[in-house]
Design goal:
binds coenzyme A, Nonspecific Lipid-transfer Protein, Chain A, Aminopeptidase, 3 domains, globular
Length: 404
Amino acid sequence: MAFDVRPVRNLEEFGAAFLAIGQYFGATTEEDRMQRWVDQLGLDRMHAALSDGAIVGGAAAFTFNMTVPGGDLPTAGISVVGVYPTHRRRGILRSLMRAQLDDVHERGEPMAALWASEEPIYGRFGYGLAGFCGEIALPHEYTAFAQTIEPTGTLRFLEPDEVLEAIPPVFERIRADWPGMFSRNRLWWERREIEDPEDRRDGAGPKRWIAYEQDGSIEGFAIYRHKPGWEHGSTVAELRVLEALGIGAEAVRDLWAFLLAIDWKATVKAWLLPPDHPLFLLLASPRRLRFRLGDSLWVRLVDVGAALSARRYSSDDSLVLDVTDDFCPWNAGLWKLEGGTAARTKDDPDLRLPVQSLGSAFLGGVQFAALARAGRVEEVREGALARADGLFRWDRLPWCPQIF
Ligand SMILES: CC(C)(COP(=O)(O)OP(=O)(O)OC[C@H]1O[C@@H](n2cnc3c(N)ncnc32)[C@H](O)[C@@H]1OP(=O)(O)O)[C@@H](O)C(=O)NCCC(=O)NCCS
């Protein structure tokens, strides 16, 4: 059966393409709901696959910037990917990925990134696992810190109508030097962060916003919900921490000290936390976090030369990479990284690797040595793995705070 792939043309087509993934999540496609998605994505960023004139697949991309080590890169935030169950395993996903990556390339976005609902899918299209995150479920009785700390800032509740002015500037400062974080525009803040409809609360109460101030300046914030509950006459309430971020170490420490000390809860839960979260070193009983690690960001370098030239490096070393890329062949071949810039070269390679592995290492979260141990990088010149890791190492592990 033949099919075409093209951007959707109107709201109705957007809804049909959205349903390609939406149906698996039990989502509905009322007009106002779809219009809100279109407001954020734009019609032109939703590709649809059509069979006999009917839409049977969809794949979309957010337009945002993602922090990379020492830089900020226009990035396609891939989302809403799916194929109708009536048309699966006929190459429709492959065609969608083809059209989408060509489009990303033409737009001049050097990188695409995604969270995968199913993680085996995207490697074949050049995405590499680039970051990790974890969830915690900490019992109330194990929330004590190992050392006594004196808070250095003050905390106050924010009303939802104060958030839009108060919090985005702090978030942007935090994002500026944290690889993997992406920009949130005003619409994103309004619709995804501040609006708090009951159907997005998963049975818990409304969002509580906390501002953390030092010397009159907001240096951090926390968002949490209470999920009350009783069993056998005692509380089984959860405190669900949605985000707790600060500019400096003191802000993060004080915010978590506050959150963990809130009364009348049985468990503190949080999701998508960085794998090197300071709680491991702050708590007296870090094992009680029951930290469960999983994959988070998958990164695809769409323009290898532009992407490599857009981040900074931890040494002045040079490196020649022999990159293979079957799906986006314009990336394939020899690249020399020197003085922070990547250019085509005829020099002999130091490392040979598929573009997936370069995507994994790009944000500094996965070492070349680890990739080599998994058979995903070949060390052509002796010592090149260590040199590459010295170059790409960054003082902060990549982390993405939110599924997009
Ligand atoms: C996953 C999904 C998008 C695949 O679409 P599809 O049109 O059936 O995929 P294609 O026929 O283009 O297959 C492309 C390749 O992916 C592989 N593949 C497809 N679905 C896969 C899965 N769930 N797990 C592992 N591999 C998968 C195919 O075997 C094929 O491999 P090949 O390149 O070696 O031939 C579709 O089944 C779907 O919508 N599933 C439910 C929603 C979902 O999981 N969406 C992804 C969100 S991250």
